[in-house]
Amino acid sequence: MSWSEVGAGVFVRRYAELDLSVGLVVGAESALVIDTRGDHVQGAELAGAVRQVTPLPWQVAITHGHFDHCFGTDAFLPADVWAHERCPAHLARTADQQRDWWVAHYRQEGADDTAAALAASVPVMPDHLVSERADLDLGGRTAQLRYLGLGHTDHDLVVAVPDAGVVFAGDLVEQGAPPDFEDAHPQQWPTTVDALLALDPTTVVAGHGSPVAPDFVRAQRAELAELAAVCRRHRDGMLSWEQSVRQSPFPTETFRTALSRTL
Questions:
Q1: Bond into 78 cis (ω within 30)
Q2: Mind listing the pLDDT tens digit for each residue in 49-107?
Q3: Which of 122, 124, 149, 256 is most buried by a 10 A CB count?
Q4: How distant is the alpha carbon of residue 87 from its chain centre?
Q5: Residue closest to 21 by CA, chosen among 218, 175, 149, 158
Q6: Residues in contact with 170: Cβ distance below 8 Å, sequence separation at least 6, in sequence order
Q7: What residues form DSSP beta bridges with 167?
Q8: Bridge partners (DSSP) listed for residue 22
Q9: Taking Cα atoms as reference points, which of 201, 212, 215 lies closest to residue 12?
Q10: What is the pTM of this model?
Q11: Is the confidence at residue 263, as pLDDT, over 90?
């Protein structure tokens, strides 16, 4: 496991567990950690890895309130913890359910150590909340926290590093697996990706998988729009289930979940 530098002082660390990618932006005076992994043990590992790169004081930005992105935050305290303003409510509403489901999943998979670590992990509530935008001065460079609209959740926060041309997209962009629609807003997601592309990145760090170029994001945006259209046509009685599954750009279960989120 190692850091990849995707821009000057901008790093990505990709984990085999859930193919998660987390980020680090280093300025002259402080650093920003982007997502903290899925439990207190994983968070401590990441904190140690950050300290191999920089001794600077850190802040934390959480892209969204799914356990794999934020249940490791305790390892970084004391620190300012940034997230969208709807993230705390999501965590308060779903943290126990997320923990119970994934603990059972890991036990079923025989990953007892991971299950035990997650069972003992309590998410930290973000204490610095973003409505639409916050600019963090890291010393000689700015990290921009942006809420661009409904997508993977109702509170996705992206982190743009303009001087490096890098955008950390969280799970608004997925590489290596279909996007996840469990808490998604399929009809609005394509427009939110348009806003992400309007930031004009040269590199987009997906929440899972490898960093990608804008052309990859444009292609995934087209698939998201196609899926949204199929969901609408099925909802409106214009397509049968079988026709919808054939026309979906994603697997059947992904389509089923997206359809359940199409109001």
A1: yes
A2: 999 999 999 999 999 999 999 999 999 999 999 999 999 999 999 999 999 999 999 99
A3: 124
A4: 12
A5: 175
A6: 35, 63, 64, 69, 152, 156, 157, 158, 207
A7: 160, 204
A8: 13
A9: 212
A10: 0.97
A11: no
Nearest to 220 by CA among 250, 200, 246: 250
- Residue-range domains of the chain with CATH: 3-214 (3.60.15.10)
**Strand order through the sheet with 128-130:** 3-7, 10-14, 21-26, 31-34, 58-61, 81-84, 128-130
Alpha-carbon separation of residue 161 from 26, 27, 79, 107, 166 (angstroms) = 10, 11, 20, 39, 5
Do the beta carbons of residue 178 and residue 250 sit within 8 Å? yes
Q: Where are the alpha helices (DSSP H) in the chain?
A: 40-53, 67-70, 87-108, 112-119, 189-197, 214-235, 241-247, 252-260
* pLDDT-derived band at 2, boundaries 50, 70, 90: confident
From CA 240, how far away is CA 140, in angstroms rounded?
Answer: 56
- Structure tokens belonging to residue 179: 């996007």
Torsional class of 232: left (φ above 0), alpha (ψ -120 to 50), beta (otherwise): alpha
139-174 pLDDT, tens per residue?
A: 999 999 999 999 999 999 999 999 999 999 999 999
Amino acid (1-letter code) at residue 161: V
